[in-house]
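Figure S7 source data.
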Amino acid sequence: MMRHLIFSLLVLLTLTMTAQENRLIPAPAEWSPETGSFNLTPTTFLLARDMQAFQDAVTFRDICIDWFDFPLKTAIKEIGSGPYIEVAYDSTLDLPDGGYILVIAPEGIKVTGKADGGVFHGLMSLLQLMEPKPDRTISIPCQTISDGPRFVWRGMHLDVCRHFFSVDEVKQYIDLLALYKFNSFHWHLTDDQGWRIEIKQYPKLTEVGGWRNGTMVGRYSDQQYDSIRYGGYYTQEEIREVVDYAAKRHINIVPEIEMPGHATAALAAYPEFSCTGGPFEVAQGWGVFPDIFCPTEETFTFLENILDEVMALFPSSVIHIGGDEAPKDRWKECAHCQALMQREGLASEEELQSYFVQRIEKYVNSKGRTIIGWDEILEGGLAPNAMVMSWRGTEGGIAAAKDKHQVVMSPNNDCYFDHYQGDPANEPLAIGGMTTLEDVYNYEPVPPGLSKEESAFIIGAQANVWTEYILNFEHVEYMAVPRMIALSEVLWSTNRKSNFDDFKLRLARNLQLLDRQHVNYSRTWQTQ
Ligand code: TNX
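Tokens for the predicted TNX complex:
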């Protein structure tokens, strides 16, 4: 009887131990739990062995204050006596770039990271393991983790045009990306319904293009509008602040400036860059609009000047130029466009779009950057060095990879977080579709039918949060979380077992972290 009891107790103890330890998402490549725990106290030093690691240490200290109201002392020095967390860069680690080794022992913690992001990713794992106690110390279970990412592009997107989100809210979004080891934030800054980035040479882009005189409310089919002036934009100073905030979290921001379509807000401000001359109003409803940039020399100069300011603000090696959903009606009726097509020997308006994108690509390349565009940029011929974001399914991505172009997969079936995540009868109004947590978890970014060499051009994936039907930041959180947590495992983990039940167990524990930050995540998956 006694033996039975001891055995049961042991089983219970092991279970609670694994329960405590096994809440890391994305799942690490290798981990071994050990007995005991490290206790973080206000006298624990966070020691960096080099300047790069010191920057990560300082960011981690800030995050610990934010999350746990816990002040860690930070310094660049060798280990002395007393408990410590030590962080160091090590380019010789036998791990993929961004990988790390995290050793948690009763006497101290060591995080060694490879290349850009390694130490920080290790610290984010550490953060997920931190368990605050009532006496204001923090307990961390002993273990060793050796980890590194599967894909180099682990992205999340946010549309701030259809609805606008403040600098603070964008930072909160970036915090979530950081916690789950995303490294790319695609900031969708311009669209028909609003231009959201200050451009000094063209102040009307935000003065006029940043505001609309009403917004579609409710279902698209109802065609109802309010008449409330709505808008906002980020100053260049605010943009720099966000870029810096993200960089400290090893997240690159890819800005998107839409062309030639989704340009109504820009054309409302500067109608001279359209084919008809306007006038136009910033769009109040959703959808695809016929007035797009006209491919005149003046338009190219305008766009190049804008891109100059954008590239000065964003260090990203990749600049998103949109390229999607550009109806060709205006170009078909435009004498300038038709003459240009004749002169350049272009057989169709699709080829004219390709000419447009190639000119922009040449300009962006001349500044040492690469363009990425939605898969429509394949139509009429892909620009020579362009990367492709495949959203209308996987075909565009497959074609681009076969053509030796780098591809970020973002197919709408699996990666559109504006879709419903559960029965529409119980969910807030969404654009449509159905992408459950399980769909995201089981998503495989490398499509079948590619050879090994071709597959290497699929550099990762990204989920998109379009905000036509997402009115505030709490709703962004509801749509993005926990689906983005599932995607993080798809993108990071090399040993994903595709065991959704196991993922759900870890997720339940992991979400306790987000309760602390009052993140408005969805619980729909709990009833599926
Ligand atoms: C298509 S995805 C769009 C967006 C919409 C989205 C809604 C893409 C490149 N274009 O403009 O917001 O669908 O799901």
